[in-house]
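Predict the assembly for these two chains.
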Amino acid sequence: MTGSAVFASWGNRLRIAHPVLRPATRDGAAAMVAGGPPGGLLAHGNGRSYGDVALNPGGALIAMRRLDRFIAFDPETGLLTCEAGVTLAEILAVLARPAADGSGWLLPVMPGTRFVTVGGAIANDVHGKNAHREGSFGRHVEAIELARSDAGRLVCTRTENAGLFAATLGGLGLTGLILSATLRLRRVAGLALETEDIRFDTLADFFRLDAESADGWEYTAAWVDCLARGPRLGRGLYSRARHAAGVAAPPPARAPRFSVPVTPPVSAVNGASLSAFNALYLRRLGSRRSRRAVRPYGPVLFPLDALGRWNRLYGPKGFFQFQAVVPPQAAEAATAELFAAIAASGQGSMLVVLKRFGAIASEGLLSFPMPGTSLALDFPDRGASTRALLARLEAIVMAAGGRLYPAKDETMARASFEAGYPAHAAFRAHIDPAFSSAFARRVGLLGDTVR
Amino acid sequence: MSAGPSRVALFGATSDIAVAYGRRCAEAGARLVLVGRDPAGLVASADDLRVRGAAAVEILHADFADLAGLPAVAEAAWAAFGGLDLALVAYGALPDQATLEADPAALAETLELNFVSPAVLADRLAARFEAARAGTIAVITSVAGDRGRRSNYGYGAAKGGCQRFLEGLRHRLAAAGVTVLDIRPGFVATKMTAHLPRGGPLWATPDRVAADIARAVARRKAVLYTPWFWGFIMMIVRALPRPLFHRTRF
């Protein structure tokens, strides 16, 4: 089944027509890879990558959403095997149903949206608000079934094809086609979360709050008012949560109840709306310094999933997302420098996630999470000034010894990629010769010519 | 869905609408018998439904084009769990109308698979449901059956024949308290329509159609247009005066 379709990046800046293959079975998908059609191949999941990692101009895309079957689940061990096109939302809806005592199975790592596929979660080795406790998604993957153009179907684990397994975690889909995977779900004593939001005034307060929360709280992240300058620089809200034993919570919906139906002619995110949003968001707690609650995990962990197609709010020009991590020793200074640069540019971001990663190493050769502090931001595309800001932020991160996140990126320089991911040379040996992506060509993982 | 049917047979179980509906039943804890001709696809679907919560899943191989074999298929499906609460007949084929005009054998095949076969199967099942005095026989027909049109009257006639057959079956089974549901989808993004240009507001997902079917079963509806707006569209198409109708090309 072939055809052609336009695929857009989630940032909506790139809209590219690709030849597309739509396998309905794993056998069919493996045959497509073995057939090695001319031009490179690349899997495309649920289209939530912000930049160009899931696009492949000049080559073809393999649309993976039809491979959406569960294969096996063992309620004794929590081991789940499913096809690569199953979304995390579907796993939660089917398997994270509370038992009578409120306990239940849960994905050990959940990124900021549940509308991503298992294949995409592995290929980008995604992380969640509990990264400091559970590490990245790949740590909970036990096995990957991979179709290679040069070696057929392989099962990759930590002991079998271990090199290819490590390359495939965070491997940006370049090591072959992920057909299915086995994940280890986690049993929690209560699916609901006990949450606490705390207002803070300075970045130093954030780092202090975060240090004292590390042991007792599983999910932590902060929002920062990036329009604030001078003495107010670094004010924001710190959110922390942990499972509430004995309290049940239903799985979040399979699809958002409300969606943005069309792209407005201009960005709805602009100076005025951003000032209003930031002022309101900061006052969410009213006059209180902090607020506690017990809530279902859906709205806590997936706030953006409440509104379908929210990316359209940025208008036809789309937006850039920026996410980077800087190592612990440089974290406080570099984070302050990043916020100062943003404030100076006058280009604020509505979405701001400041989060500390823990010491748990990611296994993937190109995995993004590493010990340090991560900052994620959205910027409407205003042309040259936005690119200049992104370049400035990239320079600060690289000077601090950090790295940028490929799943969010559209602009990083080849030198920044190579400095941030020193295992890139070792990774090249695992790239499937029939695969390619716009990102891989841009950062020099592949030659500039279509392969 | 908690009060949904607990013993379900899906005929044409690997069709996209049957898969989507089967998943809903499985998540409500139903027992399912999957009937079809693609062994690997049936096994994959059975595994999927078990993980989703199906209390039991049985597989039954059948070629629906083999009319003589249909009574045995109906009996085996009925026997799998000692009776059924719901049978969904979901197989069919949508060939290109031009092919049917050029090839009489293909036309006969289309009429057989889309009309004769489901009619015979539904009739065999009807005897069982009638004796049990409960349950639902649901058959996927099509909005194409509502009026013969140049672009697909071979397929449309078969589906229209099915609609009429189900109407009669419903009349017969009413006294026994058995529901006969005629499901008339519009454009659905499935394997069957993969060759058509897609997109636009008229196209629905199999999951949307499955949700509508679940609701119609619960409400014991007789005829379901899915999505709902097809009821209005087909009302207009049926009402178009012939001189006007003949000037359209759809």
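Chain B touches chain A through twelve residues (CB under 8 Å). The domain at 7-245 of chain B is CATH 3.40.50.720 (Rossmann fold).
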